[in-house]
Amino acid sequence: MRAWPILAAAVGVTAVAALVGYFGAGAVVRSLFAVGGVGFAAICGIHLALMALMGLAWRALVPGTPGWAAIWGRLVRDSGSEVLPLSQVGGYVLGARALALAGVSGTIAAASTIVDVTLEFVAQLAYTALGLGLLVRLHPDSVAATPAMFGLMAAAAAAVAFLLVQRHGFAHFDRIARILGHGWAERSAAGAAALHTALRAIYRRPSGLWLCFALHLASWIASAAEVWLALRLAGEPLPFTAVLVLESMLYAARTAAFVVPNAVGVQEGAYILLGAAFGLTPEMALALSLLKRARDIAIGLPTIGVWQAVESGRLWRRRSGAATNRIPAASPD
Fold first, then answer.
1. Which of 32, 162, 307, 317 could pair with 287 in a Cys bridge, judged by C-beta atoms 3.0 to 4.6 Å apart?
2. Tens digits of residue pLDDT in 62-114
3. pTM of the model
């Protein structure tokens, strides 16, 4: 494992501890416990429903895939990103691996992951644009509006470039591989060609693309319901539109800090700064962030445990089969 993710995570954990200590651990814990066990279970239930919806969005790109397999793959993807000390890319790899183990071709699993992540990012841009519009309407003098607008424009340009690469970029790789000739380049070209073919097949189905985008956008908007419910249970309710602005700007900050595993420290700081505009105390803002992290652990740890058991069982069966094949047959007397 590279040193950078570990160092970034360590700095983030230190920042979280410093923030909790500065604003008072007791006050943060009281705000956190105000949600209650039943409220926490309800928030976890809402999140599981949203993950199922996002899994179905992934399935829309590969219609023959069983719904349970896509939902399970999405669950593994998010659990790997939020619980393990990995970047988001590491979670994408785990999710594609889980989908492949469910019977989907590895090439199709990889291609559909690329397109699904892209469309989810585009849906997030629409979500951020909606939140930015509401922010300008609710707080015209907000200092966060201008940098958020420029960040949104840069992210939109990056999304367009990524889409163009997926549609046309592999042709350049194919030409380079043909110039290089045989050997490793030939094998690389074959793999790239297969991935390119799978990507083109997905992009030839506009109905699946639009359905995937629509389901992701609905998931982004509905995700604000978790924080809206938590604030009501904690006795500090906010209008849903205000929560939507808060959450859309928060996830924009998380996306910008994608190199930090689990956005540790970034999420907490963003909640404090953004929440202040809507009257949230720093203690409640930190409690919201810690509540989300507790939710991710409650869902993610069992998921990673099951995924690890499946992978270990598969490896054990493979090794047992190989050992059996190596045993020489007994000669007849």
1. 32
2. 988 899 999 999 999 999 888 876 667 778 888 988 898 888 888 889 889 98
3. 0.83
**Residue 129: partners with Cβ closer than 8 Å, 6 or more residues away:** 152
End-to-end alpha carbon distance in the chain:
55
Confidence at residue 226, expressed as pLDDT on a 0 to 100 scale: 93
CA atoms within 13 A on the CB side of 114: 18
Token duo for residue 183 = 């050997």
3-state helix vs strand vs coil in the chain, percent to 5: 85, 0, 15
Which amino acid, residue 187?
Answer: R
Q: Is 7 helix (H, G, I), strand (E, B) or coil?
A: helix
Angle at 70 between CA 65 and CA 75, to 5 degrees: 170
Q: What is the amino acid identity at position 46?
A: I
Nearest to 50 by CA among 246, 245, 258, 216: 216
What are the extents of the domains in the chain?
24-310
Q: What is the dihedral of CA 148, 150, 152, 158, to 10 degrees?
A: -150
CA 115 from chain centre, in angstroms, equals 13
Q: Which two tokens stand for residue 15?
A: 């920042």
C-beta of residue 73 within 8 angstroms of C-beta of residue 102: yes
Spatial CA neighbour of 251 closest among 226, 270, 230, 235: 270
